[in-house]
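Worked example 4.2. Below are the chains of a multi-component assembly; read each line carefully before continuing.
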Amino acid sequence: MMPAAETKIRFIDRLEQAVRRRGTPALVGIDPHLDLLPPNILPAEGPQRRLLPRQRLAVAVREFCAGVLDVIGSMVPIVKFQMAFFEQLGPEGMSALAELVGHARRYGLLVILDGKRGDIGSTAVAYAEGMLGPAPVSSWGGDAVTVSPYLGEDSLQPFIETAVARQGGVFVLVKTSNPGSGLFQDLIAEGMPLYRHVAAWVEQQAVRTKGRCGYGDVGGVVGATFHEQLAELRQVMPHTWFLVPGYGTQGGTARDVAPAFDPTGLGAIVNNSRGILFAYRRREFERFGPTRWQEAIEAATREMIDQLRTDTPAGRLTSR
Amino acid sequence: MMPAAETKIRFIDRLEQAVRRRGTPALVGIDPHLDLLPPNILPAEGPQRRLLPRQRLAVAVREFCAGVLDVIGSMVPIVKFQMAFFEQLGPEGMSALAELVGHARRYGLLVILDGKRGDIGSTAVAYAEGMLGPAPVSSWGGDAVTVSPYLGEDSLQPFIETAVARQGGVFVLVKTSNPGSGLFQDLIAEGMPLYRHVAAWVEQQAVRTKGRCGYGDVGGVVGATFHEQLAELRQVMPHTWFLVPGYGTQGGTARDVAPAFDPTGLGAIVNNSRGILFAYRRREFERFGPTRWQEAIEAATREMIDQLRTDTPAGRLTSR
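Applying the procedure described above to all two chains together yields the following structure tokens:
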């Protein structure tokens, strides 16, 4: 009876509990860039690696990512798989992704599938049903997905409905972390930028899907690299949990992401991908050398957790 | 020597030649909705089918889609695979997709991978390199992809650069065919709707990637269901080849899509998915019954080709 009851807890309340349990909103992004994999995982240099058989590349990616999960599996509440790096390797890469999602879930990690999908009606249903919910309810076993809003409401609702039915979540792109995100997102319509229109819609959906923690199953992606917009959006989206990319390699610091949180330290998860996965390449961790890449990952994860604890309201998560 | 020279022809010129050769701009969308597959391909009724093992579903989808390609392989110039319906079936579905792309190419069909991807910098590169170019240059073997513009220029350029380097193409969502597409796309900024801002950017890129036929490797997705916008966009995007969804089941007719073409009958390809794949369910073709679904597909494809020839400038393609 208990497991059945357990599965009835909404995504957002499971996320809140996981963040409290692990005491940190740090989210590790699993982005296995071929060119950056450690040499004992995949020999040959950068571009030459692309010439290796895809099967060989997929084996290396699986081994590396499993090694990442083995380190961080008990340190953080949630991981995010960047689907592009698996899709890049063809069907073999997608098989690796499916196995790795299972690997992550065995550590009790929540799993975001970052595919930024978006399509019309029945096609959106196919994406949503394939991605959301534990296997075998879904094919890919994600707890949450990222979606792109350009196609409008009828492209987003199928994701939200499937998510709510399966105790899953949806993070809608609002203001992304890339330098060129403003080209369309910052266009001013009816007195406010496009991203604020998307924000208003997302906040409505968050209210509609609100859990016991006060946030909704529908969240928003807001980049760490746009400090002011992060603060602005926190104000106008009080029920929307933020997925904040752009920390670390892209330039965002713990101070930059501090406005993403509410005063109790909830309301945001902060993603770091390359800064953790490829920490062995960072000067601060070069003491480990390329073969001890897992120790570098552990040190970098601890560093991020400490920085978020010191410089953001997330420090209050562990002082209760 | 000839094949090497052949591969140097830009995507857009290959598309133009293929459209002329087959004498039609009809594009068949390969969207294998599980619920609509013929009963001799997959037994059981609609929703109960989802309970079958994924491996079984993937075999059925592969068999059905191969059967579609066997009928239309010499009738139309190009097909579009809707990735969602393959991704929905997990790794097994993605393996089926890879095989089916190969099957399509053996008929000389050009292949669009419709994933509406969009992500930042190095992630966009991973998507683009995985999808664009014949296997084994890419993992998926697409001639062109669809992309979503919300993330802005630095998310789109990696697709365009990879496409140009590999004689591929990119279709950017401009005005989509779904009823709710206006929520964000129609917001007025600086005196014109968002989709016009996207259109202006796409047209610039089309000019920059122009082939001998006068159109560019960067095209635009413009729905058949918004007749006026189609005519408006044809005016302001003279170098942009249109991919026009929404024909058939979504309500668009040949007359609706006529404004997508230039006076010589070039400049657009028109997609029909369900109206062709599941023609055996349409009243006009019920005489074939569910087991003769391939004959229904052939009749529906001929019907679409004829309607486009009669009611649009595409009729001029064959009268030269």
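Take a moment to check your reading of the output against the notes. Chain B touches chain A through 61 residues (CB under 8 Å). The first strand of chain B starts at residue 26 and ends at 30.
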